[in-house]
Amino acid sequence: MPPSRFRRPLAALALSASALMLTGCFAAPANGPGGGTDRVSVAMLLPPRSGLSPFSDDAFKLSRWRTAETLVQLDEAGDARPMLATEWSRVDPRTWRFTLRDGVTFHDGTELTATHAADVLNRATVASPPPRILDGVELTARADGDNAVLVSTATADPLVPQRLSSPQLSLLAPAAYGPDGRVDPAGHGSGPFRLTAVQGTSGATLDRYDGYWGEPARVAGIDVTYVPDGTARAAALRTGTADVVEAIPPGQVPLLDPELVHEVPMPRTNTLYLNTDRGPFADPAVRAAAREAIDRAALVAGAYEGRADSASGLLGPALPWAADLRSDPAYARALAARPAPARVQGVPITLGTFTDRSELPETAVLLEQQLEAAGFVVTQDVREYAFIEADALDGAFDAFLLSRATVLDSGDPVAYMTSDFGCAGGFNISQLCAPGVQQALERAAGTDTGPARRAATMQAEAAVLATDAAIPLLHERVIQGESARVDGVARDPRERDLITSGTTVGATP
Question: What region holds the Solute-binding protein family domain (predicted)?
């Protein structure tokens, strides 16, 4: 009997057990009469990695809770729209002027000023590590009068407004920034929800901020619990112990009421990064052998139960223009220049990944089988992300399996490519520094937004793929759970928005 016939009954047992364990983990959903007195409970995938520092990936939690805000936000198309800045203009090729919104106060009562906004942006440039959105960008900011900020870059940058939309460039009150470089977001944001309590890696509590400059929140607050285990998150939705659940594993979806599950393509690619600096994959022909060993359809069917899209490149269906541009003859020529695969009988490699996304360990098992069928001898190292990220960035693995958001920061994929594949990239797991790739990235980065930039972006993708430093496997989908008693939750492919001012909670039907 195939193993798949056992999977769902076992999952159902695990789901019941997880539900029992979770009963005491979540705040009990409020079933009040409405009118802004209810609270929304959220089960999130990953706990904070950097104490909720806005300069780290934790900033996306602050954004999804609508407690910290940026000068600019992105609309569904990825275009820049006002937030804490109401308008902006280009003063010269290297300088932009942003006019601040009047009447903005932080949660501690202090007012937003141009001097402070400039100070925060300058702090971000010297943070360690710096926000990914600033990889390869020399940015400085200064106040221009009382209500405007001038942002300058060392070279002309058409994406400055989009860069300032990154949650890692959120503005917090002056008191949030300590002399030792630490940043405390609790009680120091500007959004409709005030972060009132941080329970380390177990959860957080937020209350409505009545002094918010925009539309006031319709719920009284947010109760967050971090639940890395995917079965437990699904159980939280099924049992009603959470109103909103992040990242439901595909294997759990058949066990849930389909009316509670919402799925959209997202700009996130499951990619196998190969170490180009040392070890077996320093040889391009050995990297080619790994590429040829991969059966993407088997990964999608096995680990994701068909709820993902096979990858033809780094960018997936969430960016529909990417597929059409792969028909460019120059794109095909770049890929045709790849070397022939080497014979790899008995070549040992280490494969790393993390447990926080439940599909990755299963994908790694399938990858191990495919690579070993091609002649590699695979040793896996699987840990929680917080305990493996530093080793991955240091190049400790021959191969690393990562679920990577491709437009997370600016709404533009060039920033992600520069971070992951540029010579000075802050997230360069492949340890890649190839002149052709660097030139393509710089050309794309310097091109104005629009069709020309998209074409240059795809040429950069082709240059990366030609090195086999990264093997794109599949494109994930957002699988988000929402209880029947919650409404107005954001379904954001870029994972910036979740609970909004318009989110409401009512009694269970």
Answer: 81-426
Distance of alpha carbon 409 from alpha carbon 407, whole angstroms: 6
Residues 487/260, Cβ–Cβ less than 8 Å? no
Residues 8-26: tens digit of each pLDDT = 333 333 333 344 344 445 5
| Amino acid identity at 70 | T
Compute the distance between CA of residue 395 and CA of residue 279 in angstroms, rounded to an integer. 10
Longest Cα–Cα distance of the chain, Å, equals: 74
Looking at the domain 68-178, which fold is it?
Dipeptide-binding Protein; domain 1 (3.90.76)
Domain-wise residue ranges, the chain: 1-65+191-243+483-509, 68-178, 265-476
- Alpha-carbon distances, residue 99 vs 80, 84, 117, 124, 151 (angstroms): 14, 9, 11, 20, 11
Instruction: Kindly report, residue by residue over 363-383, the tens digit of the pLDDT.
Output: 999 999 999 999 999 999 999
Tell me what pLDDT residue 36 has. 60
Superfamily of structural domain 1-65+191-243+483-509: Periplasmic binding protein-like II (3.40.190.10)
Say if CB 114 and CB 146 are below 8 A apart.
yes
pTM of the predicted structure, to 2 decimals: 0.72
The HSE-up count of residue 275 (CA atoms within 13 Å, CB side) is: 18
Question: How many Cβ atoms sit within 10 Å of the Cβ of residue 109?
Answer: 9
Measured in residues, the chain has a length of 509
324 by DSSP, 3-state: which? helix
Tens digits of residue pLDDT in 221-272: 999 999 999 999 999 999 999 999 999 988 899 999 999 999 988 899 999 9
* Of 144, 145, 49, 158, the residue nearest 94 (C-alpha): 158
Convert the pLDDT of each residue in 292-337 to its tens digit: 999 999 999 999 989 899 999 999 998 888 999 999 999 999 999 9
